[in-house]
Amino acid sequence: QVQMVESGGGLVQAGGSLRLSCAASGGTFSSYTTGWFRQAPGKEREFVAAINWGGGSTNYADSVKGRFTISRDNAKNTVYLQMNSLKSEDTADYYCAATARLDLGPSPLPSIYNYWGQGTQVTVSS
């Protein structure tokens, strides 16, 4: 069983930056594809970014391409989401997730992710 804990959320002005972290425990982190998803009030959870087990392959939602960067440090069992040029529409609760389904690569499908964190809130003021 993998436990995942997000941190790094907060309040930031539009145009600013934040770096989210997600620390994993209880499993072989380097064996999992990991992803970030977000959910804004009144909206469905949506894909943000994902990274394969080794960090060599990434996938991004069109809305964040060029602004967000996902990375991982398997030695620290941690995945990161660097968010730059933040916009008010990036305001949401951000969740990290992990899956052992390595055959699908860094998938945007939330249904394949088995393990989820509790989320961290990001608020971007305009």
Please state the average pLDDT score.
96
**Alpha-carbon distance between the two ends:** 40 Å
Range of strand content? over 45%
Main pleated-sheet profile: 7 strands, mixed
The helix content is under 10%
- Strand and helix order: EEEEEEEEEEE
- How would you sum up the global shape? globular
Low-confidence stretches: none
Give the tally of β-strands.
11
What class would the helix/strand composition place it in? mainly beta
What is the helix tally? 0
Q: Cα-atom Rg, whole angstroms?
A: 13 Å
Q: Could you characterize the architecture of this molecule?
A:
The structure is a single chain. The protein has 126 residues and is an all-beta fold. Helices cover 0% and strands 48% of the residues. The protein contains no helices and eleven strands. Strand 5 (46-51) and strand 6 form a beta hairpin. It is globular and about 40 Å long.
Task: Please give a quick description of this structure.
With 126 residues, the protein is mainly beta. The chain has strands spanning 3-7, 10-13, 18-25, 33-39, 46-51, 58-60, 68-73, 78-83, 92-99, 115-116, 120-125. It is built from no helices and 11 strands.
SSE diagram, text form:
Layout: E1 3-7, E2 10-13, E3 18-25, E4 33-39, E5 46-51, E6 58-60, E7 68-73, E8 78-83, E9 92-99, E10 115-116, E11 120-125
Parallel strand pairs: 2-11
Antiparallel strand pairs: 1-3, 3-8, 4-5, 4-9, 5-6, 7-8, 9-10, 9-11
Please tag this protein with its features.
mainly beta; 48% strand; seven-stranded mixed beta sheet; globular; 126 residues
